[in-house]
Write a structure and sequence with these properties.
By secondary structure, the protein is α+β, with helices and mostly antiparallel strands. It has one domain (12-140). The protein contains 5 helices and 4 strands; from the N terminus they run αααααββββ. It has helices spanning 2-10, 13-35, 38-51, 63-74, 81-94; strands spanning 100-106, 113-119, 122-125, 134-140. It has a 4-stranded antiparallel β-sheet. A hairpin with a 2-residue loop joins strand 2 and strand 3 (122-125). The longest helix is centred in the first third of the chain and has 23 residues, at 13-35. The radius of gyration is 15 Å and the shape is globular. The protein starts with a helix and ends with a strand.
Length: 143
Amino acid sequence: MITTARKLVSLSRGELLLLGTTTVLLLTSRALLTLVRLDWTHRALDRLVRVLPPYASVRDPDTIPWVVAVTDAYIPIYFSCLMRALVGERLFAVNGYRTQIHLGVAKDDEFEAHAWVERRGEIVIGELDEHARFRPLDTYCPP
């Protein structure tokens, strides 16, 4: 707990704002995905990300996967890969970086789905050790 507090104190104001924004977005995605359709959730996240700080101030795109992973790790609530992908994609978009959300299923007999975000052909959010097990079904293109 002390180590976490020290890490938080060492972050810049912008990084703390981005952590707060990401927390709000992840919690919102979790609530909305249980109640409404994917496209409605995406639209709500799009509106929300545009009014919450840090107002499109991420200069290094590598910061976005970091902040999604840190927020996911430190909030004691389960966030699915789809929730993380939606939030990450919206954070990338509001900061001017083009990405795509991919949806896939496992190739083996057991049903398992996965969502991930790609930027320039590389997975930036949702990388798994056994990622080759998943066959992409579709690229989610927001309305």
